[in-house]
């Protein structure tokens, strides 16, 4: 069981299944949403994700059509992305986890949008968009 919480601690969640496809996304939307060089994101199955407190504080911003990026309305912590065209999966940023997910980033994506002040110094593959399936 993976567990996590937002910065103010009012939203708490559990993930009962696998966290898959971990990527560091350098796109400008992820950079701005996180206020960071990149978003480390993955997939979780919607049926595996459960808010155990504070679900009513989860609000969202539709950053592109059908992509609802959720965050805590009190502290602003970035949480799951809901996909209007895929009810089976959530996009999931790893930053609010309180437990070790046991997985690590596999690649960097959207590196063409990388912040000029950040240098990728690892040997993970780099992609202009998402990695090929
Ligand atoms: Zn919060
Ligand atoms: Zn992105």
Describe, in plain words, how this protein is organized in 3D.
With 133 residues, the protein is mostly beta strands. The chain has 1 helix and 10 strands. The protein has one helix at 28-34, and strands spanning 2-5, 12-15, 20-25, 39-45, 49-53, 58-64, 67-72, 78-83, 86-93, 107-109. It has a 7-stranded mixed sheet with strand order 6-7-8-9-4-3-10. Strands 1-2-5 form a 3-stranded antiparallel sheet, with no helix packed on it. The protein binds zinc ion (2 copies).
Identify the notable features of this structure and list them briefly.
133 residues; mainly beta; 7-stranded mixed sheet; globular; binds zinc ion
What is the topological layout?
Elements: E1 2-5, E2 12-15, E3 20-25, H1 28-34, E4 39-45, E5 49-53, E6 58-64, E7 67-72, E8 78-83, E9 86-93, E10 107-109
Parallel strand pairs: 3-10
Antiparallel strand pairs: 1-2, 2-5, 3-4, 4-9, 6-7, 7-8, 8-9
The structure holds zinc ion (2 copies).
Strand content: 35-45%
Low-confidence spans: pLDDT under 50, at least 5 residues? none
Number of strands: 10
- CA distance, first residue to last residue: 27 Å
Helix content: under 10%
Instruction: Give the cofactors and ligands.
Output: zinc ion
Radius of gyration: 14 Å
SS field, number of helical segments:
1
Topology as H/E string?
A: EEEHEEEEEEE
């Amino acid at each position: 069981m993976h567990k996590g919480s937002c910065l103010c601690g009012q939203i708490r969640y559990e993930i009962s299944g696998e966290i898959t496809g971990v990527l560091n996304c350098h796109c400008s939307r992820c950079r701005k949403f996180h206020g960071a060089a990149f978003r480390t994101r993955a997939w979780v199955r919607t049926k595996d994700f459960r808010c155990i407190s504070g679900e009513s504080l989860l609000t969202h911003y539709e950053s592109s059509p059908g992509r609802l990026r959720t965050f805590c309305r009190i502290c602003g912590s970035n949480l799951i992305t809901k996909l209007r065209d895929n009810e089976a999966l959530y996009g999931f940023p790893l930053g609010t986890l309180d437990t070790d997910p046991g997985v690590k980033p596999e690649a960097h994506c959207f590196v063409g949008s990388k912040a000029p002040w950040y240098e990728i110094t690892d040997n993970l593959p780099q992609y202009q968009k998402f990695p090929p399936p």
